[in-house]
Amino acid sequence: MTISVLVVDDHAMFRKGLRMMLDDEDDIQVVGEAGDGEEAIRLAGELLPDVIVMDITMPNTDGIEATRQIVSTLPNVKVIPLSIHSGKRFVQKMLRAGAAGYVLKESAPEELVHAVRAVHGDDIYLSSAISGVVVSEYVRLLNRSDSHDRDGGLSESDKSIVQMIAEGHSVKEIAAAQKTSASKIQTARRRIIKTLDLANVAELTEYARAQRWGEGETSVEMASSDSESLRVSILGTKFHRPTVPPDFVSRDRLLQKLDEACDVPLILVCAPAGYGKSMLVADWLAKHNERCAAWLSLSEAESDLRSFLTYVVAAVEGQFSGSCPDTTSVLHAAELPTVNVLADALGNDLDAIDEPFVLVLDDYHLIAGGEVHGLLENLLQHPPRPMRLVVITRHDPPFSLAALRGNRWLAELRQQDLRFTRDEASEVLSQITGVTVNDAALSRLEQLMEGWIVGLQLVGMLLRNCEDKEAFVSQLQGGVHQVYDYLLHEVLGRQPLPLQNCLQKMSVLDRFCAPLVEAVCQPSGDSPDSAMTGAHIIQRLRQENLFIVPLDARERWFRYHHVFQNLLTQQLDKTHPASEVRDLHGRASDWFSQQGMIDEAIRHALAAGRSEQAAEIVADARLKTLTRDASYELERWLALLPESIIGERPELLLARVWVLYFHLRFEEVPAVLDQLEPLIAERQLLDGASASGMRGEVDLFRGYLEFFAGNCADSLGHLHHAMERIPADHHPALSETDLVVGLASQMDGQREQALQRLQSILANTHAMHPTRQIRAIAATVMIHMISANLHDAIFAATRMKGIAADNGSSYAESWRDYMQGLVHLWQNERSAAVACLNKAVDRRYVLDSRAAMDAMAALALSYEMNGEQSEAEATMRMLREFVDSLRLSADIFHSCEARLAIVRGNRPPVSRWLKSAAPADEPALIFWHEVPCVTRCRALLAKNSQASLRKAEQRLEAYLQTSENTHNTLNTIQALLLQSLVLHRSDRNAESAEALHRAVALAQPGDCILFFVELGEPMAELLQGLTADDAVAEFVDRLLAEIPKPDQQKHSELAKPTTEEDGSLIETLTNRELDTLELLAQRLYDKEIAKSMGVSVWTVKTHVKHIFEKLHVKNRREAVQKAEELGLLKGK
After folding, report:
1. Distance CA 1126, CA 1060 (A)
2. What CA–CA distance (Å, rounded) separates 206 from 165?
3. Could you write out the three-class secondary structure of 560-614?
4. What percent of the chain has pLDDT over 70?
5. How many CB atoms lie within 10 A of CB 1002?
6. Which residue in 797, 806, 804, 808 sits closest to 837, CA to CA?
7. Average pLDDT, whole number, for the chain?
8. How far is residue 77's CA from residue 48's CA, in Å, rounded to a whole number?
9. What element of type H or E holds 549?
10. In DSSP terms, which residues pair with 389 in a beta bridge?
11. What DSSP letter does each residue of 863-917 carry, written as one string?
């Protein structure tokens, strides 16, 4: 029996080869060919082949979707994927689509023939290269149950992981909560996805939400070495969309307006409280389940820019896991960049999401921070293509609404739109009262309430208890205020007095749960309400429909409707003395503090007038907050406290020192340390252990300052005291001490002792906190770099990568990439350097600012040395933007700019830089790549006048002396090389040769090559005249081979950057690419662009790729911005 085969691939030549190969078999006949998925689906229906050989990556419909459609309609047709992709993701997707096997294109031709015969005989065929990866998955797919109880195989631990994933937590946060490593959480996540028969984390998130797992309170416990924990203040209740009740009156006219507004970037729903804004949007989303939507209910706390961004990212990543990597990276920075930079990061992340989604910001009127408004204003200047932003607010946000209207980027629903019509009001009242109100009463209510839904609901509650409803409505003369009075007397007044009292007390809470209600109301044992638990009170409120809103699907957390809360607050102030109201806030603070919810605990303590209590809360949370690298939270809390309180408490002053330390504001630290000393002396009399630990922290910072002042002996003295005094559970302080002790010991000539101490720390990893492990191995890498032991540095950096990845530390990963990139660069492995440094630069806001600037300077030089001047210029622009965004000194930027000009042989910029003020010396040069005082010597050498050479010689002598005194081999090599050239040009050839010989001997063991290559042909001439012994002769030959010959060097002049002035960008874009760019600016999807241009989606993707390359951008948003700047868009 002949097996009929349909061959599907988008390369005609490949199809022809397959046809010839298969037709050579007696029992196989190729009956057709298809060039894409759509044609495959059509031909499969017409030809009914036995087997289809299917490529995966094709234009229009890909092989995965084609397989899914074919198998669902033609179950007897067997599909074999034939692909270059061996990754698990592609294999699993094809198997899930219904493929009968999987063959790699790299396989021998006979393997495909065997596969065709096997699947035709109802067997499974997998290429041997992937069978180990997928066979268990494939068997599971064949035998999976259709049971709807798909969580039955999960343990309670797995279920808690799923819930936290659904609530938007990162792997690092989940690992901390589970008190395990990030790598183990990733393993567990993969196991869960497999157990639940899902494809990825995004599907897992959607599944958990559908099962209502991810809508409870989200308080993430960050692990520490003790049994206590501190919770990250991300509340899952903020992501809960209001539940639309079954009897909700849906308003079709407004839903239609929202549907019509789906093409604009911003939908503004603006009206006073009680007009049903949130429920309207929730109803709209509920009626469009296919629409992906993230909901965020805001509070005053999100006026803080970092808090706001954290919640926005969590909301979006709850729908699209891992979709905001750039923004997440920036959020880990000790100091946030400008809102422009943040808006670009967020905009790029959101723009990369590949399906439309809605982001709802509810209660936006509570945002008081100008930075948050500025962020959204910037974001809306170039709206992310997939996002539709819905802002629900009581008053207009301070955006440029006129400009948005002018661009037709804004749709608005306002008070006049949201007013209930007579028909809608009638339906609402009928739902509440169970009867129909006559037209006269409706007219009266329409006149009094003016379409205000809460007013109508209040009247409906009153009408339920009235026999003559029309008479009651006709007596209403005072409008809303009279309704309020009726509510207080007729509804609340009928409740038991203890319950009335408790309802008023609860009005101090923005959200409440049963235990919190009990803590605030505190019924005494002999009071009439002593039997009323928090759960009973909430249940009574719900039974009476007294305006409470559930905040999670498990209905644990609630809040009052804002109007009702305001009414109760007014009553509370009238019926209770101010001292009692403050006491209520104090009880709330105590409860939140016990739960580890620090922000709310502080806010209630301050509302209670208990500044000391708020200070105590911050002091208690200080160590655990530092342990999870969240100094920015300490900074926010300190800003809430009176300065007089901070100045009296050594713990709070130490918190301030840590904040200054992470901001690199070292010049402000000594004054705070001086302020601390007498306070610690006083504490010593009361609590010796506590005082000793704080004195150890002071020793750490004094040692740090002495180290960077170049005073290693004094530094080590302070640091040894720190090691003796800092308690074992203060992981941040111990970690920093390990790092600085290592560097200071290297500076003092105790390199081996330093390495031995660090190795002893790392040998005890099972009992060591991850933060301390990471700092210890970072110190090891740095010591090897300073010693020019570059091979050992690479080895240690590789180990650091594993520890950083296991613990999900983007900070550590950034440092690792930065340091490894430097080492590769110094070994003249420039491609490897570019790869590592680009990773570090992508996370530049996570790095300490000095390291981030150094990474960008090193990357610029790497590109320059590779002849990629446009990339070097782009990196310099990034460095300038970074410096400006954080308001840093521009010394590094100007120094690097001059260094690149020296490499290019472009003297005017160098001369201008030399005329500017000389950069300040850095006493502790450690391993920085770009050191302005050293580049100054390079510039003086390049100037090549007698005066400049004399200055260079003087500076280099001092620089060399400092490097040798501090045992800094890396900087000694650079100083000797520059000194050899200066001496040679001064005709002191013997001294020049001696300096060069020393440099070669120091550089050879670690293959430190770049500093020779950077100096070009003049250095090659000196090396050629060097008399070297056999030990270094081979290294000298290698150096000469690495230095480009004069005709190979392309640095004779500064290449003109590609800008709009010379028109080069416009010339490099084809007409079709320009057409594509115009459509990108209209925020169209690839399919829409393809349809408009009459080409395939594949062709569009190719055009977009070329546009990115030619404009030197990374995404569509940047491409449109660049095109606008260059005037390439006709529509603009």
Report:
1. 5
2. 10
3. ECHHHHHHHHHHHHHHCCHHHHHHHHHHHHHHHHHCCCHHHHHHHHHHCCCHHHH
4. 81
5. 17
6. 797
7. 82
8. 7
9. strand 548-550
10. 266, 359
11. HHHTT-HHHHHHHHHHHHHHHHHTT--SHHHHHHHHHHHHHHT-HHHHHHHHHSP
Rounded CA separation 570/503 (Å): 12
Q: List 102's β-bridge partners, or say none.
A: 126
3-class secondary structure, 360: strand
Crossing angle of helices 669-686/650-662, nearest 10°?
Answer: 150
**In 269-338, which residue ranges form alpha helices assigned H by DSSP?**
277-286, 305-319, 325-331
SS3 1041: helix
Bridge partners of 101, per DSSP, are: 125
pTM of the model: 0.67
- DSSP type of residue 489: I
**Model confidence at 974, in pLDDT bands (50, 70, 90)?**
very high
Structure tokens at 524: 């005494």
Q: Which amino acid type is present at position 188?
A: A
CA atoms within 13 A on the CB side of 856: 28
Q: Given a cut of 60, is residue 1053 above it in pLDDT?
A: no
Contact 155, 188 (CB under 8 A): no
Integer Cα distance of 761 and 548 in angstroms: 55
CA 825 to CA 858: how far, in whole Å?
8
DSSP 8-state secondary structure symbol assigned to residue 387: E
Which SS3 state, helix, strand or coil, does residue 297 take? strand
- Residue 999 sits at φ, ψ, to 5 deg, of -65, -45
Say if CB 709 and CB 666 are below 8 A apart: no
Structural tokens at position 438: 């006559």
Residue 168's pLDDT band (cuts 50, 70, 90): low
Q: pLDDT digits over 447-461, tens only?
A: 666 656 666 666 766
Distance, in Å, from the CA atom of 324 to the CA atom of 991, rounded to the nearest integer, reads 57
* Residue range 609-623, pLDDT digits in tens: 999 999 999 999 999
Distance CA 361, CA 381 (A): 18
Q: How far is 999 from 1012, CA to CA, in rounded Å?
A: 9
* DSSP letter for each residue of 689-753: HHHHHHHHHHHHHHHHHHHHTT-HHHHHHHHHHHHHHS-TT-HHHHHHHHHHHHHHHHHTT-HHH
